[in-house]
Amino acid sequence: TALANDKVWHMHEAAEQDLLEQQVSLMGELANAIENHQLEVQYQPKLDLKTNRITSVEALVRWHHPTRGYLSPDSFIPLAEKSDHIADMTLFVLQRTLRDLSQWHAAGTEVKAAVNISARLLTSQVFFEAVRAALAESETSASHLIFEVTESATMADPSAALRALEGYRQMGITISLDDYGTGQSTLTYLKTLPIGELKIDRSFVENAHEDSSDALLVRSTVHLAHALGLQVVAEGIETKECLDFLREVGCDLAQGYHVSRPLPAPDLLALCQRYTGV
Ligand code: C2E
Ligand code: CA
Ligand code: CA
Ligand code: CA
């Protein structure tokens, strides 16, 4: 009835209001999270399928909230992206990553590390200069740094994205096209981007060993990437079957729980040093 519908509607409104208030307060807290040492960076290895060595890692941010406990990046990054907090958070991740890279290198482990760059930051001139400054202060060379940029981030403003990527490439940073397959980029557009790596999204990889259309997409992406001179990474590898399939189709690198979960920096170093492959 109309009355019952009205009640449901008000409950719905109240729930939305709650969510909004929660998000506003979380956003305010994020501003202090860095200073209060609540953010941590963990690293997930990318396994080189030809040599069976860990050649690079992806930096993934973690928020240990004092009252809400562990928060997944999916719950606060979209919020951070709506404000300037994304710039501070990403700079924190970048600086931490550069510092950890120099420690791993000092310990004799020659890995590279990737940092995720949101669409909004990609074309920011202020952020660009901050990256240059961070690299200048660091002992780590830009050649050890990878920026993961999603396919959709480059599509928002293709010509601005292209200019920014070209600038980072000139700085010596490798660009990796993240979540590949979920956007709408054409082959012609892909050819114009100054990228060195293509990351196939987990949604295509997870069933590729048993789903023929996903298998086709993965196979053809590997061929396409190699034809363009790019390395291919498959993300979200959870099983041996999946890993075997990727080896068989000639994929270069694999990332996922079957290789390793994201790890704190010291654990990552230990894993690299004793790694014998899966
Ligand atoms: P992403 O860039 O696609 O990162 C991969 C996500 O998949 C990570 O989730 C990782 O922990 C998870 N993952 C890795 N292997 C597996 C697997 O085998 N199975 C499954 N089911 N999941 C796997 P996480 O750490 O929760 O991050 C989620 C997203 O948050 C990331 O997706 C990325 O878009 C964003 N993110 C994380 N850290 C940062 C950051 O520092 N900056 C920005 N801008 N975004 C970040
Ligand atoms: Ca990523
Ligand atoms: Ca990804
Ligand atoms: Ca993904």
Automatic annotation (TrEMBL):
Signal peptide: none annotated. It comes from the Bacteria. This is EAL domain-containing protein. Coiled coil: none annotated. The chain holds residues 486 to 763 of 772 of the full protein. Residues 23-276 form the EAL domain.
